[in-house]
Amino acid sequence: MKGYPIDLAKAQEFLLGTIVEAGEILQKYFHFETLKKKPKGDHDLVTEADLAADCFIIKKLGNKFPDIPILTEETSVGDFEKYKNMDLVWLVDPLDGTTNFSRKFPHFAVSIGLVFKSYPILGAVYNPIYKNLYWARANDVSAFLNGRQIHVSKEVNPSNSIICVDWSHDIAWRDKTVATIQKLVGRVGHIKMFGSAATDTASVASGQIEAYAHSHCLPWDTAAAALIAQKAGAKVTDIDGKKWNVFTPGILAANPVLHQKILEFLR
pTM for this structure? Predict the structure, then answer.
């Protein structure tokens, strides 16, 4: 595409094949009776499934696009500064929703986004249990779920809406989540916490929920799904209503009318 140093249509074709193959790896591990896992920080964990999918995706993307850096959850050292102005970088979460996965709760996904100067230009999110494959790219007007064009919910009444929120893995940010919930209670229909930022933001795109709010997520959590939501008609900002990019800590995604109303509640 003019303006991007890559053919997005061809990259998308390769990405969709790769993410489905990665999902097949997760599906295999999901049915293991015993899953090897270890703590990662105070409130997170990593399993052998995360690592196997991560290794596979890095190898596939690296072989096909050797000049594009790859930043994944499992290989990151936590410093994103050098990635912010890169022409292209892959952001990968090989298993978003690891705790759910480890408990045999099938609300998780593989998430892969291609980012241009901090903004996503290609993204895919895949749940291999439900066979739900979401994708979007910057030079297409639509977002898709299993080849079908999708749109955000048309609901504009907050009292009829379903809002998803999540805890940060950083304990210092959890008070912000509590404050968010307190400001929404009694003003929106339902508040849910499902534990997969990529899945839930993609669910905004398909109209299954009205909004997703997270005070402190990481770049690979929403890089792909935010683009999908935007292409489905969502307004995406940080949780305070400011401009969003993949390195912004928080996110609020909703249809434009509800987005404004939720912001008013949060302020």
Answer: 0.96
